[in-house]
Automatic annotation (TrEMBL):
Organism placement in taxonomy: Eukaryota, Metazoa, Chordata, Craniata, Vertebrata
Name listed for the protein in its UniProt record: Olfactory receptor
GO molecular function, one term: olfactory receptor activity
Domain G-protein coupled receptors family 1 profile: 39-287
Organism: Hymenochirus boettgeri
Entry's family note: Belongs to the G-protein coupled receptor 1 family.
């Protein structure tokens, strides 16, 4: 250990080393980032301004939109800077900080998806008691539980990372600081770190996964006993949530539950783009296109804005006359 050189700066391999691709990639991901912020912010504004959307279901949806904005802001701005400067270097402290916030938003989103599954379970399986069970105090407590759990979980990993030393200048095969990739370039013994990832992944990750999907077993059983009209309405309220759940878990499982991380760097980068960049982008599209109430609310807001603009213009003409 004493003869090894310690590094305080890490190198990210990025998405591409070709100089000719840096500007096109910068413009593409800048556009994606702006669309992500716009789409999720629009959902938050709709939920805050439309009284028809001020229910527990849309309260959690607004929270998901806020998390998506934070989630994408952890990785994309840093990637845009690397495209612009073409240096792709990051300090150890900044790298660990990025890992903390990345894990915070990722775990927050996974736990919130589980809470939203419970909300759909109560709404479909116990509709007469929905307002008593999912009142605002319960929603706030569930939200606080999500935040507290999401703050503590990545803190455990970060505290162990701070004890490691890094003495290998091999680039991280990613465009952001990934926990697995960071452990690969450490010259310390990372057995405890890897063991902790495995244990927490199995027990906590498995628990969150079960809490997300198990309610849908009961939901599907209840839906099959409904009339055709009620069944269609129940499916429409669940389809958006299920689509997002399958999208998030599908990309995460494909990325993290494969052996030989070093042998799949290109594939890992492509998959990482899906769950760090594209998922926050498509979530508002899924909820706006597959949710009739959201579409009606959007049309109502756009219609009122157009009507106000038309009335102001009409009044202006009357004044000039």
């Amino acid at each position: 250990m004493e003869n090894q050189t310690r590094f305080h700066i890490l190198v990210l391999s990025g998405l591409s080393d070709l100089p000719s691709l840096q500007l096109p990639l910068f413009l593409v991901f800048l556009l994606v980032y702006l669309m992500t912020l716009t789409g999720n912010l629009l959902i938050v504004l709709l939920i805050c301004t439309d009284s028809h959307l001020q229910t527990p279901m849309y309260f959690f949806l607004g929270s998901l939109a806020c998390l998506d904005m934070g989630y994408s802001s952890v990785t994309i701005p840093r990637m845009l800077i690397d495209f612009h400067t073409q240096k792709k270097v990051i300090s150890i402290q900044a790298c660990i900080t990025q890992i903390y916030f990345f894990l915070f938003f990722l775990i927050s989103e996974l736990v919130l998806l589980a809470v939203m599954s419970y909300d759909r379970y109560v709404a479909i399986c116990h509709p007469l008691h929905y307002t008593q069970i999912m009142h605002w105090k319960t929603c706030v407590l569930l939200e606080l539980g999500v935040l507290i759990f999401s703050v503590v979980y990545p803190l455990v990993h970060v505290l162990l990372l701070l004890k490691l030393t890094f003495c290998i200048s091999t680039p991280l095969q990613s465009f952001f600081c990934d926990l697995r990739q960071l452990l690969l370039v450490s010259c310390s013994d990372t057995f405890i770190n890897v063991l902790l990832i495995l244990i927490l992944g199995i027990f906590l990750g498995g628990g969150i996964f079960a809490l997300t999907f198990c309610p849908y077993i009961i939901i599907l059983n209840t839906i099959m006993k409904m009339s055709k009209a009620m069944r269609s309405k129940a499916f429409s309220t669940c389809s958006s949530h299920l689509t997002v759940v399958f999208l998030v878990y599908g990309t995460l499982f494909f990325s993290y539950f494969r052996p030989n991380v070093k042998d799949h760097s290109v594939v890992d980068k492509v998959v990482s783009v899906f769950y760090t960049v594209l998922t926050p982008l498509v979530n508002p599209l899924i909820y706006s296109l597959r949710n009739e109430i959201m579409k009606i609310s959007l049309k109502r807001v756009l219609g009122s804005a157009y009507s106000k603009r038309y009335n102001d213009r009409y009044r202006g003409r009357l004044v000039t006359r």
